[in-house]
Structure formats: structure tokens, C-alpha cells
């Protein structure tokens, strides 16, 4: 089964074709990062207008790369939440129009669930259940116990900022630019871990907290204790990575999982990837960088695993900007 995925939940316009949930035939992403970096963050109104301009060319390029026509597509999967309402609306209405015009089945996908499926698209990986997924993105930090496809239990989440949001805010504080994750990672490579930052552990739960870290960094900067932005970036990155790895491994041990799955934009962070593998006694699946950040192949893959169970969305599919996991 060939599924066409459409993703427009934030600032990336993306289309991809995936065969049987695991094989990428075409994968196109048009990033708006240069447009939004002028404002230091995503401007929702600008994002939805840009999606409108990009969606048709992105789909055409994706089909051309895959050497496929719409007739050779079996089904459509589209992100319907969580995300920016105006951005989600572009993708959902586009996918519904194609599904109706071409008479193909359609399924609406939770963007966060989609992120996990980067692990099924990773060459050489066949994740084993039960698995524990750490989803670390710009808006979410979730620990999800996955017993099978579609069988999820949220066992930990952030109480305040998401991990990606923490990177973005720290980068702004240190005047390093946008988006925060990649610029902090780059600065950290030339820095040393010199600052003492809080551990952000919430006792008795697998939840996360990153706002204390951000506040501590702010205080240090305000009182002139940040001599080197590179050292501050290295210290901040190390603190976030330690929290993520420690919580994940504690949860993995308690739930006796066979596999750890990394997912979401922050999973592109090389220090997180390295430390998770170093410290984990359990096999860790880590998708390639291009599948960690937003793309439509993850949506198509996730869509396939729902479709094979007979699940479908109707043409009254709506967007759900605050959709929980
Ligand atoms: O999953 P994603 O692409 O979009 C959302 O669904 O939110 O994640 C975006 C987030 C941003 O906060 C960005 O700063 C962070 O992922 N990110 C990183 C890295 N690359 C992207 N964080 C740390 N290190 C990176 N290399
Ligand atoms: Zn995402």
C-alpha cells in the first residue's frame, strides 16, 4: 500500500509517499525557517500563507521524485493536530480535496504519534514491543509506552516548557539566533560545561520540568556570570540531555521495555543521541536527522499502520490544534 502523507502543522510544508509503512519512495520538505528567523519564532499567519503557496509545488516535486502519479497512490494521511490552526487547515483541506477528487481513503494523524514512526522508516531498524518512545519536539516532551501499533500509554510529560522550547528560549537569552536547538548544539561544540544548573527532576513521577533551567540561566546571565556563550550553551545542552536520558532510562527500567525510540526535532541533537546510546542497557532506535524534524514520511508511515487496521477518517475531518497525545 502506498500512502501519500501531508504535513503542515507548523512551519514546514511537506509531502511524502511511503510504501507499506516502512519504505520512503518520495519525501519533500519546504522549510519556512528563513522567513520566520527574522522574527525570532514562527508567526502563525505568515506560516499558513506560506503553506498555501508551497503545498502544490511540494506535492508535485514529491511525486516527481518518486516517479509516481496520483493514480498510483492508494491512500492519504494528513496531520490534523496538534499544531497551529491556520497551518493545519491548509494541509487537512488539501488532503480532503485530493481524497474526494481522486476517490482515495483518508486518515487524520496525530503529529506526535507520527514522530514515533520515524523509527519504522529508519534503515536497519525494526522496533520491538513493548517500546518506550521519548518524543521531544518544539511543543512537547512526552514519554509514551507503546505496547503495539495504536496501543499507547502516556507515562510522562513536561510540566512546563517542552525540551525544544527550552532550547529555543535559551538561544534567545544567549543571543545565539533561531531555531534554538541547532544553534545551541553548534555553540556547545566550542564550549565547556562550566555552569551549575538545576536538575529539573520531579520526584515520584516520570514528568519533566525545564522552566527552572531556563530561569537559572537567565539569572546567571543577568548577574554577569555568563562569560562565554559557548560554555553556557554547552552547560545548558548537557543539563537538558541529562534530564531527558535519566528520566527515559528510569521509565524504561520500571516498565521493562525491549526498545527505546527517540522521536521529534530535539532527537536531532547529537549529544542526546550519543548519551542515550552510551547510558542505555536497552537497544535505542535513533532515526536519521532528516526524519527527526518535521516531515510527511512519518505521517504516511503512521497512516499506513492505522489503515491496515481498517481505520478511516470521513470528509468532515477537522483540525484539532491542542490534540493531546
Ligand atoms: O519536531 P519538530 O521539528 O517540530 C515540532 O513538532 O515542534 O521540533 C522542533 C524543535 C525546535 O524547538 C528546535 O529547536 C528543536 O526541535 N531542535 C533541536 C535540534 N534540532 C531541532 N534541539 C536540539 N538540538 C538540535 N540539533
Ligand atoms: Zn514535530
Overview of the structural elements:
- The structure is a single chain.
- With 325 residues, the chain is an alpha/beta fold.
- The protein folds into 2 domains: 2-117 and 292-307, Nucleotidyltransferase, domain 5, CATH 3.30.420.40; 128-286, ATPase, nucleotide binding domain (Nucleotidyltransferase, domain 5, 2-Layer Sandwich).
- Helices cover 42% and strands 19% of the residues.
- It has helices at 33-37, 44-66, 85-102, 111-116, 163-173, 180-189, 211-222, 229-255, 270-279, 289-292, 297-307; strands at residues 2-7, 12-19, 23-31, 75-81, 106-110, 131-136, 141-148, 151-157, 259-263, 284-285.
- It has a 5-stranded mixed sheet, with helices on both faces.
- Strand 7 and strand 8 form a beta hairpin.
- The longest helix has 27 residues, at 229-255.
- It is globular and about 60 Å long.
- Bound molecules: 5'-O-[(R)-(carboxyoxy)(hydroxy)phosphoryl]adenosine and zinc ion.
- Residues 111, 115, 137, 264-265, 294 line the site of zinc ion.
Amino acid at each position: 500500500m502506498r500512502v501519500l502523507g501531508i504535513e503542515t502543522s507548523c512551519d514546514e510544508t511537506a509531502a511524502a509517499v511511503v510504501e507499506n509503512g516502512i519504505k520512503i519512495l518520495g519525501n519533500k520538505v519546504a522549510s519556512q525557517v528563513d522567513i520566520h528567523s527574522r522574527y525570532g519564532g514562527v508567526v502563525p499567519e505568515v506560516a499558513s500563507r506560506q503553506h498555501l503557496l508551497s503545498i502544490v509545488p511540494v506535492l508535485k516535486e514529491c511525486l516527481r521524485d518518486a516517479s509516481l502519479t496520483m493514480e498510483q497512490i492508494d491512500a492519504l494521511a494528513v496531520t490534523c493536530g496538534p499544531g497551529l490552526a491556520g497551518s493545519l487547515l491548509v494541509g487537512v483541506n488539501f488532503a480532503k480535496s485530493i481524497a474526494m477528487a481522486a476517490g482515495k481513503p483518508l486518515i487524520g494523524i496525530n503529529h506526535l504519534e507520527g514522530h514515533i514512526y520515524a523509527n519504522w522508516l529508519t534503515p536497519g531498524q525494526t522496533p520491538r514491543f513493548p517500546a518506550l518512545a521519548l518524543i521531544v519536539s518544539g511543543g512537547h516532551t512526552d514519554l509514551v509506552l507503546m505496547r503495539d501499533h495504536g496501543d499507547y500509554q502516556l507515562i510522562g510529560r513536561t510540566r512546563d516548557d517542552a525540551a525544544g522550547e527550552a532550547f529555543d528560549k535559551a538561544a534567545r537569552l544567549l543571543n545565539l539566533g533561531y531555531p534554538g536547538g541547532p544553534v545551541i548544539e553548534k555553540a556547545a561544540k566550542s564550549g565547556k560545561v562550566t555552569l551549575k544548573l538545576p536538575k529539573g527532576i520531579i520526584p515520584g513521577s516520570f514528568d519533566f520540568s525545564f522552566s527552572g533551567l531556563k530561569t537559572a540561566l537567565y539569572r546567571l546571565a543577568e548577574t554577569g556570570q555568563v562569560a562565554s556563550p559557548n560554555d553556557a550553551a554547552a552547560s545548558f545542552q548537557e543539563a537538558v540531555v541529562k534530564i531527558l536520558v535519566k528520566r527515559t532510562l528510569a521509565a524504561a527500567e520500571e516498565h521493562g521495555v525491549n526498545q527505546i525510540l527517540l522521536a521529534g526535532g530535539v532527537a536531532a541533537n547529537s549529544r542526546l543521541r550519543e548519551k542515550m546510546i552510551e547510558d542505555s542497557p536497552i537497544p535505542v532506535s535513533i532515526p536519521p536527522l532528516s526524519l527527526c524534524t518535521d516531515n510527511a514520511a512519518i505521517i504516511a508511515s503512521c497512516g499506513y499502520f492505522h489503515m491496515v487496521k481498517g481505520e478511516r477518517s470521513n470528509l468532515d475531518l477537522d483540525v484539532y490544534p491542542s490534540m493531546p497525545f
